[in-house]
Amino acid sequence: MPATLHLSGPPHQPLLPEFQILTELLPFEGAAVLELGCGAAALTRQIAERTGVARIVAAEVDRIQHGKNLAVTDLPRVEFRAFGAEAIDAPDATFDVVLMFKSLHHVPIDLMDRAFEEIRRVLKPGGLAYISEPVFEGDFNEVIRLFNDEEAVRLSAFAAIRRAVESGGSNWWRNGSSVPRSSSSRSPSSNTASST
Q1: 17 in the Ramachandran plot: left (φ > 0), alpha (ψ -120 to 50) or beta?
Q2: Are 117 and 53 spatial neighbours (Cβ–Cβ below 8 Å)?
Q3: Cβ–Cβ under 8 Å, residues 96 and 128
Q4: Rounded to two decimals, what is the model's pTM?
């Protein structure tokens, strides 16, 4: 079965909190999870506190944010680490689930394909990757474009996702086109679940 990728769903597609989508799609019970680009770790916290995940490695490249994350002491199943998606500091086949929440477009464009190679490398056989990226559309993006035009990096992120989907075939990527859109940001998201 050929893999397909849709940037956004039909207008009647429900908008749901991203955490709800995650818990409906991903097997967190007893899972080893890697979150790439965890930022302030809001979703990391929800996953750690509200699912049966065994452990989470939450990676961040911003040194200031990583320093703040290291000060978090109330998440015993979370280990905060400093590395990027293009150079994951973990052995092969370590994680059951890899997550990227609106962070792929922050990876340097020339390293996006490498990030997918790394994700594939650290996923266990049968593991899942969930990639959520903001779509560049709507009035809000037109206002933001005036001082921070992310159209090119977002398009590059979607192109990298498409290449990963196409190169992996149906045995690596599962079609996430029927997944409800996340309501966690002002711009719509494309949500893609994958499996090895």
Answers
A1: beta
A2: no
A3: yes
A4: 0.81
